[in-house]
Specification:
The protein is built from eight helices and seven strands, in the order αααααβαββαββαββ. It has 358 residues and is of the alpha+beta class. It has two domains: 120 residues, no CATH class; 201 residues, Heat Shock Protein 90. The strands form two sheets. Strands 2-4-5-7-6 form a five-stranded mixed beta sheet, covered by helices on one side. Helix 2 runs antiparallel to helix 3.
Length: 358
């Protein structure tokens, strides 16, 4: 049975500019609502009156939006990895209660800042009853809840599109690797049976790990390295002594989670674009450590042709895998996850993933 993916904590990350944009839009709605209720008031006959009404509405919107956004962010930080394990009703409760508390906190602050005694923005005074106040409270809460719901749907759609793009990329690359490997196995069966058997076993391990990656949006670093090592064993048999590799990752880091197929495309790029086109081949080194900024640094280095290699045209898929990784990191981590490429003197490429520790 396939398990439904849990909520993405990224949707609850506090973003000041997004909150400001939301407040600017909502404040217009607040101003028009007050105008509709008090249209005959002389306050609305001057530009200064409209400006004052909008400024008051903006204060209310900023206080409420800021309170809700900060509460969501605090909840995301407090729950941490447990957020993905929330049951559907627990997640709905979190989504509904947080805006309620945010409105309850933000409105009194806005009232104090604007001097509006009855909690309604604007110079004209509106007489409110208890049912009216409750209705207004519910309207404001529903407005901000709807915004976060729309944002969550947008992020889910982006995530599905990104994952579909990943699977399309993998579907394009797998047949090439599949046919090359099977052709090598066929050629080795009579000439070197032990090598043919070793290649087939490594290729089976690769397929098993690859299928697991396709079914999951993320997995542990240990799972990713198992996929990478199976891939490298197959390529090493094919390239013989032209390929050397080393994986230097502490066991303590192998339990950390990361988006699936993050490291493997970097290793494949190093092989296809850096080492295979050279007669002497070369080496690939995969390392992981926690940087001073608290991010997980995953580094893939090779001593192949390098970024500025000329002469031979780029191999298939050049740049596509890197663009796909960057898009997935931006969708999953925002600005906190990034991919960097730089030369690896005296020749070769250093590709580094910098990811928040999860």
């Amino acid at each position: 049975m396939n398990r439904t993916a849990g909520p993405d904590p990224a949707q609850f990350r506090f973003q000041p500019w997004r909150t400001l944009r939301l407040a600017l839009i909502v404040s217009i709605a607040f101003t028009l609502l007050i105008f509709a209720l008090t249209a005959d008031h002389p306050h609305w006959q001057t530009a200064a009156g409209w400006t004052h009404a909008y400024a008051s509405s903006l204060v209310f919107s900023l206080c409420i939006a800021g309170a809700i956004g900060l509460l969501f962010d605090l909840g995301r930080r407090g729950l941490g990895p447990r957020m993905a394990a929330l049951t559907p009703w627990q997640f709905k409760l979190f989504r509904w209660v947080t805006p309620m508390v945010g409105v309850a906190i933000g409105m009194p602050i806005a009232i104090a800042l604007t001097g509006v005694a009855d909690g309604v923005a604007g110079e004209p005074q509106i007489r409110t009853t208890l049912p009216g106040a409750i209705a207004f409270f519910a309207l404001v809460m529903a407005l901000f809840y709807g915004y976060y719901e729309l944002r969550a749907r947008q992020m889910r759609a982006e995530k599905r599109a990104t994952e579909a793009q990943l699977r399309l990329l993998q579907a394009q690359m797998e047949p090439h690797f599949l046919f090359n490997t099977l052709a090598n196995v066929a050629s080795l069966i009579d000439a070197d049976t032990p090598r043919a058997k070793a290649m087939l076993e490594s290729f089976t391990d690769y397929l098993r790990a690859s299928l697991g990656s396709m079914r999951a949006g993320e997995h542990t670093l240990g799972d990713e390295l198992a996929l990478v090592e199976a891939y490298l064993r197959v390529v090493q048999i094919r390239m013989d002594d032209r390929l050397r590799y080393r994986i230097d990752v502490p066991d303590a880091l192998r339990t950390l989670t990361l988006p699936s197929l993050s490291v493997q495309p970097l290793v494949e790029n190093a092989i296809v674009h850096g080492l295979e086109p050279t007669i002497a081949g070369g080496s690939v080194v995969i390392e992981a450590r926690v940087g001073a900024d608290g991010l997980l640094d995953l580094v893939v280095t090779d001593d192949g042709r390098g970024l500025d290699a000329g002469g031979t045209p780029p191999a298939r898929g050049h740049g596509t895998a890197l663009a796909n990784i960057r898009e997935r990191l931006a969708q999953r981590f925002g600005g906190r996850g990034r991919l960097t490429l730089e030369p690896n003197p005296p020749h070769g490429v250093r590709a580094a993933l910098h990811l928040p520790i999860r």
